[in-house]
Amino acid sequence: MYIVHVDIQVQPGHEQAFLAASIENSRNTRQEPGNLRFDVCRHEEDAGRFMFYEAYRTKADFQAHQQTEHYKRWRAAVDGIMAKPRVGSRWSNAFPLDADFA
Questions:
Q1: What is the dihedral of CA 12, 5, 73, 31, to 10 degrees?
Q2: pLDDT single digits (tens) 60-75
Q3: What contacts 20, CB < 8 A, 6 or more positions away?
């Protein structure tokens, strides 16, 4: 499994627009055959801070996601409203095992 964790800070006043665009992206991503999970999370104390937890079967599935029209629409919708560049980190799962998702 290939996991992407993304931290995002949105400019004040743009939280709802960011959330709407991100939910649309998540819903579409979850229809991709290589996607296992796409959570959009909002910080409990900072309404402008978001986190994505994305899980794909393979790194290639994540790379394919980045070529989709819904991802490109999301990028266009949110690039101008982030307070700073988003920070993504890449992970592999330790448990459960990939075989558990077969």
A1: -130
A2: 999 999 999 999 999 9
A3: none
Query: Domain span at residue 31?
Result: 2-87
| Domain-embedded: residue 12 | yes
Give 101's pLDDT tier (boundaries 50, 70, 90).
Answer: low
Q: For residue 24, give the CATH number of its domain.
A: 3.30.70.100
CA-closest candidate to residue 50, choices 15, 96, 1: 15
Instruction: Look at the chain and report how many structural domains it folds into.
Output: 1
Tokens of 82: 């982030």
- The structure tokens listed for 28 are 């579409």
